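Hey, can you fold this one?
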Amino acid sequence: MSDFWLYLQLGIEHITDIQGHDHILFILALIATFSTKELKYIVWLVTGFTLGHSITLALSTLDLIPFDPALIETLIPITILIVCISNLFNTKDQKNQPHYLHRNIPFKRYFFEATIFGLIHGMGFSNYLKTLLGSQESIWEPLLAFNIGLELGQLAIVALVMLVNAIVMGFTACTQRDWNIFITGGAFISALIILFG
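Sure. Predicted structure:
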């Protein structure tokens, strides 16, 4: 197996690894208010998150930005908590649309937040990638492959969550607001446990 495919696979495994569930929780919180009808918004949010963490993953792996790993480990659950709190204010209106799809709360703001928080998560990924790279001379190919793997893993998580969402919405009396509260509440409690555990 070439290095590219090896690191792509490692990227997928890293983002989908239940032991690294903080990043999964962030994705869950990020898409909790969305239904399958709003898939394009979900893809944009995940892409914004990927853009953010790709930048800092590259910079920190190349040792171009210094950071305190303990601080990043604290900030990651805080990003989840912030998204969860904002989700509680994004309930559906009478037309069954999330408030952030209205002009008064532009979707661009949520894309911006996903990207900014992605910068923090990228630094969380970097220590793992540095360990994998060891003393390799060129890190560009592994870095690209790892980032693509992370994105594919994120999209797989999104696809699974949206499938469950469609089943729940289609076969139960659960509303999207109920779904949002359930997913957001679970992510919020889990983030508190990570933060103070």
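Helices lie at 3-16, 21-31, 39-61, 69-88, 107-133, 140-171, 176-196. Let me know if you want another pass with a different chain boundary.
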